[in-house]
Specification:
98 residues, mainly alpha, 5 helices, flat, membrane, LiaI-LiaF-like transmembrane region domain-containing protein, transmembrane helix, LiaI-LiaF-like_TM1, transmembrane
C-alpha cells in the first residue's frame, strides 16, 4: 500500500508541475531541461528500480539512491547538455524597472 501512495504522489506532483507550466506560472525551461536529459538518461531509472528491489528493508537507502539519480539527471540537464557551460539568460534589473 505504501508503494501506491508514493507512486500516486509522484504522478500528482508531475501533473501539478505540468499544469502550472501550461498556465505560465513559471518557466518550463528548467523542467524541460530535466525531461530532455531524462530522455537520454532513462536507463538510470532502471538502475534505480533494480537497486530498490535489491534493498528490501532499508527505505532510507532507497531514498538516497533515488535522490542521487535525480541529482545526476538534473546535473546532466544543467551542465552536460550545455557542453560543459552554465548558460542561463541574464536578468537585468534595469530593464524590468523602467
Amino acid at each position: 500500500m505504501k508503494k501506491n501512495i508514493t507512486l500516486g504522489a509522484v504522478i500528482i506532483l508531475v501533473g501539478v508541475i505540468w499544469l502550472l507550466s501550461n498556465l505560465d506560472v513559471f518557466s518550463f525551461s528548467i523542467i524541460g531541461t530535466f525531461f530532455l536529459s531524462l530522455r537520454k538518461l532513462w536507463p538510470l531509472l532502471l538502475i534505480g528500480a533494480g537497486v530498490s528491489l535489491l534493498i528490501n528493508k532499508n527505505s532510507m537507502m532507497k531514498t538516497i539512491v533515488w535522490i542521487i539519480i535525480v541529482i545526476c539527471i538534473m546535473f546532466y540537464g544543467i551542465y552536460g547538455m550545455n557542453n560543459g557551460t552554465l548558460n542561463y539568460p541574464e536578468f537585468k534589473l534595469q530593464e524590468h524597472l523602467y
